[in-house]
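Morning. Coffee machine broken again, so started the prediction first thing and wrote up yesterday's gels while waiting. Chain of 362 residues, entered below exactly as on the submission form.
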Amino acid sequence: MYIRILSGLAIGSGILALVLLIVGDINTLGPVLIFFFLSLALVLRKVDSLKGFSFTIMIFAAVVASMFYPEFFLKAGNFDLKNLIVPLLMVIMFGMGTAMSLQDFTGVVKMPKGVLVGLLCQFTIMPFVGYGLASAFGFPPEIAAGIILVGSSPSGLASNVMAYISGANLALSLTLTAVATLLAPLFTPLLMKILADQMVPIDFLGMLWSIVKIVILPIIAGLVFNRFAHGRMQWLDKAMPVVSMAGITIIITIITAAGRDSLIALGLLLIVAVILHNIIGYFFGYWGSRVFGLDKRSARTVAFEVGMQNAGLASGIALEMGRVGTMGLAPAVFGPMMNITGSSLATWWRGKPIKEGVQEND
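Came back before lunch.
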């Protein structure tokens, strides 16, 4: 009965939102659209095969709220809410560290070819595809630089989840995420300097320090915590995924509110460019790996590692550069979109399992 009521509310509010959009009643559209996404998210959580999409739908609800009522997501009294972004990212990265161990790095020795091919694809395909798309769409310089920035960022934990769901090489996924994250302080500023310096001034050392501060130090702290306190604080292990999801939602909401005017002007084009960026990453990540001789399971892993970037880190860098309302928009759009496409691809691949012993040649 509960699920039927929720489904009815979601369908009814969705139809009403479409009608309001057609007749141009924008003032009423906002609350109805927010309610639609919230009710849809609750419905999806009750369906085992679809509950992975509920978090992304919740983000859509938050984004709609920040688009219609940006004043509530910019300041709390005299406090600028943008100041929450970096601390939240550091908490998320600490949580990432607590979920890792030094064993995640041993794959470099056990799977050197897979790691090398994965890193090569990670730090070539997405940055240059981002540059090509930004140039082709003719975006303003700071918006274009944001697309390149998200392409130059390392992969995050979302790719590990998708590798697990799809039945890909999870050990390789964990190793690639760990190593790419450690290399990010060098490669992300270097790629930005090469590809985006003509769009916005890139301070190589300043960006390097920002990444170390936002990512590396919290992850090291998380690794140390995991080493000496693993299993002793189970409540923290359970809480960190929830805290991370909440933190990502807050970050995307603040960035959307800050860049609302730019999103209204460029929203559809930016969404198209971001989705293309994401899907092209999957395609070339997979087939590039196959060209280099990786088996299908490992190629699926590399596809996720390449196509799914650490959009939160890109947002934090944009904030550190003082351009969160422009450079931060592409990462804010990329995050929810990659979760939709990644979940869909993982589900599809899960339905096409790879037979043991033949994945190298088929």
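The two ends are 47 Å apart (CA to CA). Going to sketch it on the whiteboard this afternoon.
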